[in-house]
Amino acid sequence: MDGSALVTSEDYTTLNTPEPIETIPNGNANGIHESPQFSDLPHPLIQTEQLSLHYGEKPIFADVTLPIHEGCITALVGPSGCGKTSFLSCLNRLTDLIPRCRVSGHIRMGLLNVLDAKIDAIALRRRVGMIFQKPNPFPLSIWKNLALPLREHGIKNREQVDQIIESTLEDVGLWDEVKDRLNAPALALSGGQQQRLCIARALVLKPEVLLLDEPCSALDPISSGVVEDLIARLRGRYTQLIVTHNLAQARRIADYAALFWVQDGVGRLIEYGCVQQMFEAPQEALTAAYVNGIRG
Ligand SMILES: Nc1ncnc2c1ncn2[C@@H]1O[C@H](COP(=O)(O)OP(=O)(O)OP(=O)(O)O)[C@@H](O)[C@H]1O
Fold first, then answer.
1. Distance between Cα 85 and ligand 1 center (Å)
2. Domains (ranges, CATH) in the chain?
């Protein structure tokens, strides 16, 4: 599902987030990515319990209990229509904006009960940013794409805004490419640059979690590689949950993977584990068939 239409500038609102954590759970001296062992695990930053979602009367997924570990990359994989995007949308309550969408079960993020009707969903969306399949920069200049969410959060001092914009564009590897044309329209950038700008737009608000819904699938192979490298580089600083149909990508960058599948008309979590285990020694026959390209 392309949820880009769901997001308004209002979704980029509200301050009050802790600084991103600095721990880097992965990556050895050679830069080779290694999956963490379960024994090394901190508590999950987010935990869903028996999470279920309906659109109207139609059940989409049911009873999903899934930990999402801090600083790690978790990949959601599975065939089209099994509810991966819908699951992502629950985590920052974008589901509130979908008519006749009903979510039940529990989502804990630290001490926060995410599904509590009383919590500030706008504040939550600042802590849990979302990146969509199709890059969706505002039809404004590059600079304004980043200044706008800052201004909405009360950061207006020009020097401070410029400093945050520069460091965030550095973070996403875009500074050198755009520093001489910050007033150019964002829509004039290439698809891959636009997607990195959208990631920067989420990062200026210092989120803890990034939800990435097939962030590379609309990009050419080179741009896709650049965005994938960026996601891998952000490991440890942000908790990332990525929906991808690209199993090779999941294997390259994720620490954990979760396989969703429609069974008896409803999406189910079939298996969750370290990415290495999911690909090399899956516990479920369906996972083995999926990762080996036999099913799905
Ligand atoms: N707003 C909506 N209203 C009603 N049904 C919806 C809505 N959004 C998605 N669906 C349906 O819910 C099911 C799950 O969709 P979802 O996009 O979550 O699956 P997905 O696994 O992410 O699929 P894909 O990999 O193709 O993006 C699909 O049958 C879809 O048609």
1. 7
2. 4-26+43-291 (3.40.50.300)
